[in-house]
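During the second year of the project, the team shifted from modelling isolated chains to modelling whole assemblies. The rationale, set out in the original proposal, was that interfaces cannot be judged from single-chain predictions alone. As a representative example for this report, we include one of the complexes processed in the last quarter. Its constituent sequences, exactly as entered into the pipeline, are reproduced here:
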Amino acid sequence: SQQGEEDPQALSIQEGENATMNCSYKTSINNLQWYRQNSGRGLVHLILIRSNEREKHSGRLRVTLDTSKKSSSLLITASRAADTASYFCATDQGAQKLVFGQGTRLTINP
Amino acid sequence: DSGVTQTPKHLITATGQRVTLRCSPRSGDLSVYWYQQSLDQGLQFLIQYYNGEERAKGNILERFSAQQFPDLHSELNLSSLELGDSALYFCASSLGGPHTGELFFGEGSRLTVL
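Output from the structure prediction step:
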């Protein structure tokens, strides 16, 4: 499979703590994107990082990309109950394909 | 609201039947993507269209077909349905271009095959 793999599959933390999710992939990419999905709803785009970028920030989100290790991480700081969702990484592998990983289920406990 | 509209939201049908899922992309977007999400398979890329033409094909079964019309809406046709086809089917749209940028997802069509 060319899909990325997220790690961990599930993560449960206390409100206010930071959450870190990792994504690994197998092929060269043009960019890597992170999406959030609330239960049974459509996916929402969070952030895009290009293959020549190493780090990107958006509000409480910080994404890193290491193309030599074919991996990325998503850090959510100062988590809130509303951050409870599944988080997916997706890789633009060229040929107009955006391939999604299996996702990390994040639960924020009040 | 992403601006992407999918109908129907829910669909229950029997094995062997055929269904059509419809997607209206965000205004101005030329690319439409179809994904299947089931519990054990994650989010699987099916097919992508750009301005009416097929651009990329993923793990789409021969029993499935899609097209994008001149007004840029798209339909995904699923035939000879099997129990394993039960899933959430998502449509997403983007501006299009050489690299895949941000996708805007609809709320999905939940298909249940009995």
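DSSP finds no helices and eleven strands in chain A. The two ends of chain A are 37 Å apart (CA to CA).
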